[in-house]
Amino acid sequence: MTDSALQNHAGPDAPRKPWYSSLFIQLMIAIVAGILVGWLWPAFGADLKPVADAFIKLIKMLIAPIIFCTVVIGIAHVGDLKSVGRIGVKALIYFEVVTTFALLFGLVIGNLVKPGAGFDIDADTLATGADAVAAKTNDGELPHTVDFLLDIIPASAVSAFAENHLLQVLFFAVLFGLALAKFGEHGPPVVFELIEHLSTIFFTIIGWIMRLAPVAAFGAMAYIIGQYGISSLGSYAKLIAACYLGAALFIGILAAISWFLAGVNLWRFVGYIKDELFLALGTASTEVVLPRIMDKLIHAGCSRTTTGLVVPTGYSFNLDGATLYLSICVLFLAQALGVDLSIGEQVMAVLVLMLTSKGMAGVPGSSFLALSATVAAIGHGAIPVAAVALLLGADRIMDSMRVSVNLLGNCVATLVVARWEGQLDAERMLSVLRGDDVDEVAAQPEPVISSR
């Protein structure tokens, strides 16, 4: 673990640092400053997008190797294909149940709040909407289910890393870790030690890059407000309120899941990861905090194996915030056009979104593509696919809602699966969340030797 990470985990007896050295305080100041700059000088704020983009690229540069090292180290110690398979199956079942619930929950919020009521949009005025959506999505499309599953297998191990395809890297890492455990004592231990050393080096580099996080959050917020304007908050106030209300209530549900299924107080856990949560909110990206979230989960008592398997997989299969947003938006579009969707049509929307939401990660404008596919599947003539363009002005404002729920949802999933597998150190978790001075995770013993 890096020095900066250790400082974050230090207990109450650690020397106190000046308040302004706290990453949490720096991020709050940067986000507020970014909002003010984007509001007062919108043209200048809109030009600051490259600042955030550069930081995100720096983090993405290291995500694939960090996932590879974490998963290989974890699996090499387990050395059991059945255990790895159980973790994977339990995680996927959990993802499907929770994301489906998020879709249904979004429909309930949409039916109660009615965010599209009062828009009174004439469908005939949306002729150019399809072109606007095509421009936003670069004429792309979501992969079909079979293509999505086949795409998990990389064309080559090198291409998985070169294209930063997380599921492909995860797939290769699982095979590599199992093979390393199978090799056991007959192979040179230098391979395992090399991967451990590489992991330490990568996390050290992440620690250096994280010093730029406040600058990135400032640039991202200035761009969002400068590009889309404060006025967009007023135009879509009801939709924004519905989405954030849904997010707040859903986080309460995640808190209940965390407590009853993992025995973890989510509110204390939020305090533990507050730096990462604010960075994700500020940059509107969960990928930038993936390495540190994995590091903190492991430090707090989740096993390397469970963390390494569940977190990266969840970034593609467990987008709770995105699915919640999509179901609310389906009803928003219908209500804005004065269409009353039947229960059957709403159920159809949920079934379609259960499929399309799984292929969203990494696809430009994925929310618009998923909504377009859903509107087309419902087949209601009064809702043209071009109506999706109505969301162009509000979509970017929703990123903070989506990333916060996505991030917490994946953390809770990891805690729950780790508890189910007996790979959650409850005592250590409690100590860490209390703020006690807890030692770094002990150095791992030699990899498990498989006799099979």
Molecular structure report:
- The structure is a single chain.
- With 452 residues, the protein is mostly helical.
- It is built from 22 helices and no strands.
- The protein has helices spanning 3-9, 23-40, 42-46, 49-78, 81-113, 129-137, 145-150, 157-162, 166-183, 190-210, 213-228, 231-235, 237-262, 266-272, 274-283, 290-299, 304-317, 320-336, 343-356, 366-378, 399-420, 426-434.
- Helix 9 packs antiparallel against helix 17 (304-317) and helix 18 runs antiparallel to helix 19 (343-356).
- The two termini are 33 Å apart.
- Mean pLDDT is 80; it is low at 1-8, 10-14, 127-133 and 443-452.
- One of its GO terms (molecular function) is fumarate transmembrane transporter activity.
- It is found in: Cell membrane.
- The chain crosses the membrane at residues 20-41, 62-79, 91-113, 165-181, 201-224, 236-262, 322-339, 346-363, 369-392.
Quick summary:
The chain is mainly alpha-helical and 452 residues long. The chain is 70% helix and 0% strand. The radius of gyration is 22 Å and the shape is globular.
Overall, the morphology is globular
- What structural class do the secondary elements suggest? mainly alpha
Q: Give the amount of beta strand, in percent.
A: under 5%
Tally of strands = 0
Overall pLDDT score: 80
Low-confidence stretches: 1-8, 10-14, 127-133, 443-452
Order of helices and strands: HHHHHHHHHHHHHHHHHHHHHH
The oligomerization state is single chain
Q: Tell me roughly what share of residues is in helical segments.
A: 55-70%
The biggest beta sheet is recorded as: none
Query: What is the terminal separation in angstroms?
Result: 33 Å
Q: State the helix count.
A: 22
Radius of gyration: 22 Å
